[in-house]
Amino acid sequence: MAQKGFNPFEMAQKQFDKVADLLDLDQPTRDLLRQPMREYHFSIPVRMDDGSVRIFRGFRCQHNDARGPCKGGIRFHPQETIDTVRALSMWMTWKTAVVDIPLGGGKGGVICDPHDLSPREQERLCRGYIRAIAHDVGPLRDVPAPDVMTNPQHMLWMLDEFETIHGAKYPGFITGKPVGLGGSLGRTEATGYGLIYTVREALTEMGLKIAQTTASVQGFGNVAQYAIQLYTKLGGKVIAVACWDQADQTSYTYKKKTGVNLEELLAITDRFGTIDKAKAEALGYERLPGEAWIEQDVDILLPCALENQINAETVQKIKPRVKLIAEGANGPTTLEADEVIQKRGIFVIPDFLANAGGVTCSYFEQVQCNMNYFWTKEEVLQKLDEKMTAAFKAVSELARNRKLYMRDAAYVISVSRVANACKERGWV
Ligand code: GLU
Questions:
Q1: Does pTM surpass 0.85?
Q2: Are residues 118 and 227 in the same domain?
């Protein structure tokens, strides 16, 4: 999303350039990989409930499909920008490569605030989005999924529109569909759980017991909620959660030293994902400013919201006790903050590895749709755990052996895989 002075695409390109140097990549490969191969910009006219028409701007970026069809979510956000979508599409390419699934990277977005749209208006927006790109996406070209502020219902409307246009059933066109309508069990949990599988592995390598650790979480959406659920189940204690407040248009950190209770918080969260301030305080939560999540005296920080949250300024607030940062969000840490974190020796599980659980489960969803045979939730989560654990171990081993920062090690693995695919296809 647009934030003053911060451009996620420039950040993604700089991260890439650093690794391109490390790998000594040739110029054509650099030129190919430092921007999306294709991008679509379009207007989506939507008939509003009051009879008027509003025009929304939509984007889809297809960064790279050398390893398989492009893959990545569609975000609805009032501050969405093309550069955000470009960056996110690039990170998707690295994400599918680091977990070694046969997919490329893409991302879409619409500038809108779904809070202001009725369900019928959201349906028309979803259908309009697909009408604009129906001939440039598809199960063998580019496969969308949910992302910030989009959900399984949105995916189903999009699928229905795509199938109407193409006149057949294409369950592999989109993932994150509702269970029973082509969705996979475990997909809702996948990103948050995947994050905690990597946290578990990192703590084991660090010789720490999860049950003796505490965490502070930024965000209270899908990723954060399931991360809190699994981390707590494994014995960890979350002492603070930062949540967006729709009415106040700001966020607050809710803190409870004895540990936040997910069920209790969910019971007082409205359909916009806002925690009820008065009820939280009545339940013994201390309400602090939104940024307070980062300055908690905890072992683990879990940024699970948006980009640019750990930056040159906020990184200074991280307490000495913090040993691990696991990035549930895409692009939460800027390059300047990375330098500080690296110097301080805090272990980082970088975004495109840490939050790859969602897309990994999307891949399982496609596999199940292709077979038209669906696995149990246990089977899905077990396969997810295996994939995430293997990817984490490969990255941390490389980081150890070559004395690389974890983010750079993950980049080395992903960029090499994608560059090789481009080379072997004869593109560069
Ligand atoms: N939007 C999610 C992500 O950023 C999931 C993408 C997908 O399942 O394709 O990884």
A1: yes
A2: no
